[in-house]
Amino acid sequence: MSPSTLPSGDPAALGFDPDRLAAIGPAMQQFVDDNKVPNLVTMVVRKGQVVHLDARGVMDFESQTPVDSGTLYRLYSNSKPMAGVATLILYEAGILTPDDPVTRFVPQLKNMKVHVPGGVPVDVNREITIRDCLTNTTSLMMPMSAPMSFRQQYRDALTTLGWIPGEDGGRPTATQAERMAAIAQLPLADHPGKRFVYHVGFPILGAVLEAAAGQNMGDFFREQIFEPLGMNDATFYLKEGQLERFPTCYVPRETDREVKLVVQEDPTTSEKNTGPQTQFGVGGDAGGVVAPIGDYARFGQMLLNGGELDGKRILGRKTVDLMRGNHTGDMVIPMTGRGFHFGLGIAVYHGEDARPLIRSRGTYGWGGAAGTTYFADPEEELMGICFTQVMQAGAMPGNNYQETFQRMVYQALA
Asked: Tell me, what CATH number does 121's domain have?
């Protein structure tokens, strides 16, 4: 079966300067040639039609096998928009609402406390909600930015969650119930809704969604999102025959005063290949969803279409508007700076109190830890997707391929 995607269109007829659009591929090749990334697969879609699809680089430096449009990428936090959609599917079914306390589905999280430096933890002034999880405002403390005393005091719980490495350095194998019991032991950095702390609420969201749906998220995503949208390859764990399309993941490391890419995860030993198939990280834990660029394009186009693709409606149009709405008020998002708010699993550019950027107001999207990113611009009926497999890609000097890609997409509009 060939990789799924969207129909192709003529760039000029869809409002692009063909020469400018064609310059994207060579620009991406330069990042590959400079060993900033092992590969870059890029796609541009306008009005539901693919006007640019390009693959540069290799699956791994050893074999030099070229990547193509069927290469399967670890999406990590590019799974978060899918988590938003999954939540809203259950919302439309009347099973939950964004303002439900998570304890309705995960009672272990009752009686949470707020950390008081040098003092005694105090009771939260309200419970964590599903909306808090999707907007990264649970106020759970990020272990890497917490004091060493916090990490020492709650070492067992943090190790169970995989938020700090265990003594054996292995992957955590805790059950969903064990992970929630571990989170229940942790005090919050502030009261719920008061502080943006990235990602840490998504493990809670996964437990909520599984309890609400009555099934694991692997099955739920497949039945409610992947199969209806024709995302033929998308999965949390590799299916039979997919290993040969699954690339090595790299990470920058400094050796001899030079930053080079080294192997972060080999495909054959990846949990995505070996299992155990127990952690369906809707926010990107354990790599989140694995998918080729065409599958992600189908998901993204569904949202741009207002919840429907090829006659299959996943969400109502106004529900998609709810997803893209401002759920964080005037809170400044540390990862984006001013001019953005958080929707339900996505960041949205509103452009207020910020310098203009080369995108329309209302443009939304997100990225993943291994270098994947996507944006969608409803005003221009435009979507751009850029995939590679490098953890901490920004640590490589001059590795601004994401900004370059987005700029070149917009400057190609006629």
From this structure: 3.40.710.10
